[in-house]
Amino acid sequence: MKFESIPAGGRMLSVYLPPSYASGGSRRYPVLYVQDDAELMEHSVNFIDSLYASGELPELIVAGVPSACRNDDYTPWPAEAVAPGRPGFGGAGRAYVDELAGRIKPALDAQLRTMPEPEHTGIGGGSLGGLIALLAAYWRPDAFGAAAAISPSLWYEGALDYIRREPAPDARLRLYLSVGTAEGSLKTNRQRGMAASVPEAARILLAKGFPAQRLRLELEPGGTHDAMFMALRFPAALRFLFGGGAAEPGGPVRHAEAEAAEPGGPARHAEAEAAEPGGPARHAEAEAAEPAGPARHAEAEAAASRAALAGSAAAAQSASAIAAASDLPAAASQTDGQTTAQTTAQTAALPSRYSVPGTECFPLTSRAGLEYRIFVHVPVKPAPPSGYPLLCAVDGNSVFGSLAEAMRLQTRHPKGLPPGIVVGIGYPTDEPFATERRFVDLTTPAEMEGLRPDGSSWPANGGAEAFLDFLQAELLPELERRYPIDPRRRTLSGHSLGGFFSLYALIRRPGLFRSHVAGSPSLWWNERMLLKLLPELEARLQSGGSAALMLAIGGEEKGSMLQDTRELRRRLLPLAESGRLRLTYAEFEDEGHVSVLHPLLSPMLRFAFLDK
Fold first, then answer.
1. Where does the UniProt annotation place the signal sequence (predicted)?
2. What's this model's pTM, rounded to 2 decimal places?
């Protein structure tokens, strides 16, 4: 065992001393204080030792701080239990942080060769331990200059409100946040908002002026609220807080998608609401433990490399690009006795992936914490003096290819469509839909009961406002920096939940887009809330505003979908007749919810690019 028990300030700490400590002479070390007796470190100690050996991480002391009642120590104020029969929360977190900063830290500094300054001292933890670590950054920057909040319990009553209300923490701090995209997905109480709450906190911090280069948020695709996933993020947190790494260009946050799994040990506690009989869970808090799988070390650099590789493969138009993306030997090398000519011939024989001519793709990481893949169709014809009109389509992975091909064909002839830029806002996946991501980006907060129609659990939701912020403050300016775009002629399109989002943007962000397309809109979302918001749009247009909307749906879609869309059209007709709303409506006979997409494309392009 690499941990030593050292008493400090009235608590018995589990302290990891780095390999060189015993022979380090007078050398002093940074310190990270970790909640829950440093269990996060226990599950990754050998990997961290390898980072020390490779020079990727400076050696540091990790001090695990035990708690007799984490529901008291790690909560900022009292709160009721999350479920009947469960313990409530005592709210003694501020006293705990002050004890840690004022008693425990000085006692440990006196016993060990630490670097006691706040810039060399951090605090970290998972779940409720992550919540209190983040709040310690607010309360005691005089003691802690870095904080790692891994799967922090920002669902806790009042936590996000606190972050919204208070000024951002000291700008000299370094903050690391992480969360799994499936955290809370099986919950029916307020913990259901786990996955969405962490990117929302990052968005608020950045909006308040916290430096982007000193904030990192990593998302674990499919990750649940289990110690297994939390332990995977711990080495990445250390590298960001103590390794000197800064956020990459394009944003402070990355998607942590690990492809190469390493053998991992079982998590000692899974932050479960109820430990399994005879199981290893020591305390109960959030998610029910899931079957343990092999640990995946998803380090930041590896994630970035894979993202770049995926982007390269998607754009590959030559055999050499495919060879590089497949880790094949370079054409100029010799492998296993093969000649250069043999290797070149084999490489050249590989099929290349098809790509639409005149298209580009680039990754973009939002300041609020999510990674996107942006697909762009660039016209061959020159831009008009005011710039190209722009069509932005959400769910870009599913629709961009068809849109780009349609645009390429329909702009060739002088009497065809005028040139315009088509942008697909997609995700770093080769699947047509990134279900968990789109449910967050395209919806407003809603409590979903039961299971989805396909029998699966409802993903986290409620990030529409944050996604609109990303479009307005980041994506659109970046597009206008790269391409000549007319900001007065922007159209937003979406289908299904994307149709809901387009309508929501029309109502809540007037002027961001001139025109909106809503195909098969999910008006059922959150008890038909969009129909309840419609008076906002009606009042704005009646007072002198203007808008353009295309509504479309398949004739074979669910009866309730058809009924809702027709009802929306009926309510909008008076605005159209008054001239305040340019309204186009289409029902495509014999088309269902998915098949309607392709018949919709050409009318949508005409709606977006023909100047009416």
1. none
2. 0.51
